[in-house]
Amino acid sequence: MNRPASPNAIWQATSVTRADRERLNGHPGLILWFTGLSGSGKSTMIHAVEKRLHGAGHHTQSLDGDNVRHGLCGDLGFSNADRVENIRRIGEVAKLMVDAGLIVLCGFISPFRADRARVRALVGAGDFVEILCHCPLEVCEQRDVKGLYRKARAGEIPEFTGISSPYEPPEAAELVLDTGSDSIAACADKVLELLPFWPARPR
User: Fold this and answer.
1) Mean per-residue pLDDT for 79-92?
2) Which of 123, 143, 175, 188 could link 39 by a cystine bridge, Cβ 3.0 to 4.6 Å?
């Protein structure tokens, strides 16, 4: 769902371009989009990868599913329509960060393929790296670090992804991580190996 610009809004070009910011940062801006079921390790992977990128001098920002619902998307629920709007807003914010030359690490269930494809189209295929955190549902339920699966099974959370609402896995993700069995370090290595500027420091 593409929304028109607000009435009387005129796009303002900036005197400092994305290319200028990327030269200053020493690396390109891009989105690392981690998708998967609740409990599949998305946030864990973001923290591990960002820590290593930051330690190597790269400019990063992470966007976490729970965190954005404390502010930017705090007015949204979990209906299909609200899930679509949630990812639309996040995509727009991530695009601004890419324009700033940042490596943006996004961790969202983002259950619908169409929504993830929309973000990819928004920034361009080369700026969007889709990473599936593949973890069997039973393992996610065993972890259940937030107690959400227990509530969903009890009927306390309607439209819960993987239980009462569908999850559509990527058909052609750039990377599939086996977060159900592989170590955090091994998975982080695979993510970083995708990046053409890794492991060299930007300057």
Assistant:
1) 91
2) 143
Listed by start position, the domains of the chain span 18-193
Helix (H, G, I), strand (E, B) or coil at 91: helix
How many Å apart are CA 164 and CA 125, to the nearest integer?
A: 31
Cis peptide before 136 (omega within 30 of 0): no
User: In this structure, which CATH number among 2.60.120.10, 3.40.50.300, 3.90.550.10, 1.25.40.390 belongs to the domain 18-193?
Assistant: 3.40.50.300
Confidence of residue 85 (pLDDT cuts 50, 70, 90): very high
The catalytic position among 110, 164, 165, 183 is: 110
Q: Rounded mean pLDDT of the chain?
A: 91
pLDDT at 169 over 90: yes
How many Å apart are CA 95 and CA 104, to the nearest integer?
A: 9
Distance between CA 98 and CA 133 in Å, rounded?
Answer: 22
pLDDT of amino acid 200: 63
Assign 3 a pLDDT band (cuts: 50, 70, 90). Answer: low
Q: Is 110 a catalytic residue?
A: yes
